[in-house]
């Protein structure tokens, strides 16, 4: 029963966490609603801008002696609108991702809660159906396991005491070996000091004893090496024994805690026959409450699914509007390019007209100078030759005819050049007068669009 209470407390804590998740979910819903309102506001702004573009589309003001002024939306406006749309699109994508993640976590937690509720129902059923003698058997089994653990603890305590005694003996042996090693080192140092002060008078008798000293030194070195190795082995054994002792101590502490827990369980399970009649009602109430919370979570999941569908539809609508805006921007750019090309063609034609006018003026000046020279030459010939009047008259009549024919040809050239001064479309070659510049510009834009 204590385990069931603990698990119920754990479930309560989980429900508190679910409540916090629910609050987070409501906050995200509020944020989504605010974002949808902002999207609606942006859609209204886009519609307003589209209406403005429709009003200002293809409007121009023609001034005398200046280029026509075209009114239209600025490029920065479209760029800002596209940036805002992309920003809100990213926000919407992030919110959808968070909501989908929360939905998945809620579904997993609901499944876990359902599994826990089923397990609790099964456990409660087993507890209610279990007879009293089975409970007594369970208590006896726990008591036997406790006695076995106590016996194992006693044997481990004996082993630990024996290991501690062995460790003390090893420490004593280690101290004795350390003392022997120190004594041998002192002897070696004394012999080195004695052998380091030789006299010249004793060189000959000492040669015979050098061999014996060298053999003694080698023997002592071997002994020192053996003692050092034995010291290392003893240190390793001491470290191993200390590690074993620490492990046994940890095991004893954990075992004592486990035994205390078992005793506490036995004390708590001993009054079970009296409590078995009152607890099933509380357990049933807890199960009903958990089932209600589970149904609420399922309803919230269904609501979240519907909201996700609404968001998907809104997303599709936003994508459609973005596509429309992009197509409108492309059309505007193409129209602007066509207008610029038409304007450049108009400027080229105006320059050509000015050049032709200058050529006409120069040609008129040349023609006037030629006629004056012809008159002066005719007068001189009339004063010089009076006898031959008939042929010169014929000759004078011929220049007059030539002059009249030249003037007629010049007039025709002028009329042709005046005809060329009319505005003419470079594609379909339709001509307009100088006072029809507006119609000519509209015709050029229509031809460029076609």
Which properties best describe this structure?
mainly alpha, elongated, 88% helix, zinc, two-stranded antiparallel sheet, 4 strands, 450 residues, single chain, 8 helices, 2% strand
Structure, described:
The chain has 450 residues and is mainly alpha-helical. Among the domains are: 2-134 and 277-333, no CATH class; 144-196 and 212-275. Helices cover 88% and strands 2% of the residues. It is built from 8 helices and 4 strands. The protein has helices at 2-56, 75-129, 132-195, 203-269, 272-275, 279-384, 390-420, 437-449, and strands at 59-61, 69-71, 423-424, 431-432. A two-stranded antiparallel sheet has the order 1-2. A two-stranded antiparallel ribbon has the order 3-4. β1 (59-61) and β2 form a beta hairpin. It is elongated. The relative contact order is 0.08. InterPro entries: EABR, NEMO_ZF.
Shape: elongated
Kindly report how far apart the N and C termini lie.
Answer: 88 Å
Q: Which structural class fits the helix and strand makeup?
A: mainly alpha
Biggest sheet statistics: 2 strands, antiparallel
Order of helices and strands: HEEHHHHHHEEH
Estimate the helix proportion, in percent. over 70%
Q: Order of strands side by side in the largest beta sheet? A: 1-2
Number of strands: 4
Low-pLDDT stretches: 197-209, 271-278, 386-421
Strand content: under 5%
Radius of gyration: 58 Å
Tally of helical segments = 8
Q: What value does the average pLDDT take? A: 72
